[in-house]
Specification:
CATH superfamily of one domain: Rieske [2Fe-2S] iron-sulphur domain
Oligomer: single chain
Helix content: 10-25%
Shape: elongated
Strand content: 25-35%
CATH topology of one domain: Rieske Iron-sulfur Protein
Largest sheet: 7 strands, antiparallel
Length: 221
């Protein structure tokens, strides 16, 4: 070994210099406060958001259903707004007989040659209750003098149209075979096909009377 070799200074072993910067971690970081719920990709915050949204949707659905129930009340048979079962056609008043008043259903029942009518008992002028006048064989309103035939057709007075009518149905063997129908110019009543046919009045279904200009009885007072 030479003198140069013996006198050479050996370099110190290399050590890393700390710069104060954090050393990157190879482990995935998780957001503080998040917890796994058992499903990959959904944390606790997302789960609570989904649960709150579902609860709000259910509450909205229930509220809408209750509102619908309130807006669409149910009527029992035999009360105004519901169905009135009149029995077989054989028990109807004779054809052309004086109209019969049904105070519970708020209608006048009239059996004509054409069929069966249920005339709403409120005048089409300002809502007064008209009456049947035997001496003149017609309906007359005591408030403003509007007059109508037994068929409900306008005769004279300030009323803008003929009388409104409820829908009458004819039922045979549980099936509706005829009902009150409306055309552009008139309201056509159903005619029972046999004495055994059942008659019912739907007081929840009203057809507005035709304009007085279309009445076949206009000016016949």
């Amino acid at each position: 070994m030479t003198v140069a070799q013996r006198g050479a200074i050996r370099p110190a072993p290399w050590t890393p210099v700390r710069t104060g910067r954090p050393v990157p971690s190879t482990r995935p970081e998780t957001t503080q406060g998040s917890e796994e719920t058992g499903r990959e990709g959904i944390n606790r915050r997302e789960f609570l958001a989904y649960a709150w949204g579902a609860a709000l949707a259910l509450l909205t659905l229930e509220g809408g259903y209750l509102t619908f129930q309130f807006m669409m009340p149910r009527f029992r048979a035999g009360e105004f707004g519901g169905v009135f079962e009149l029995g077989p056609a054989a028990t109807l008043p004779p054809v052309g007989a004086v109209p019969q008043r049904n105070t519970q259903g708020r209608y006048w029942l009239y059996h004509s040659e054409e069929g069966v009518k249920a005339l709403y008992q409120v005048c089409t002028h300002l809502g007064c209750l008209y009456n049947w006048i035997d001496a003149r064989n017609r309906f007359e309103c005591p408030c403003h003098g509007s007059k109508f035939t037994a068929e409900g057709d306008y005769i004279e007075g300030p009323a803008p149209r003929s009388l409104d009518q409820f829908v009458v149905e004819v039922v045979v063997d549980g099936q509706v075979v005829a009902r009150t129908e409306e055309t552009d110019t008139r309201i056509v009543p159903p005619k029972p096909p046999s004495p055994d046919a059942q008659i019912r009045v739907q007081t929840g279904k009203k057809i507005l009377g035709k304009p007085r200009e279309l009445s076949p009885a206009r000016g016949q007072g």
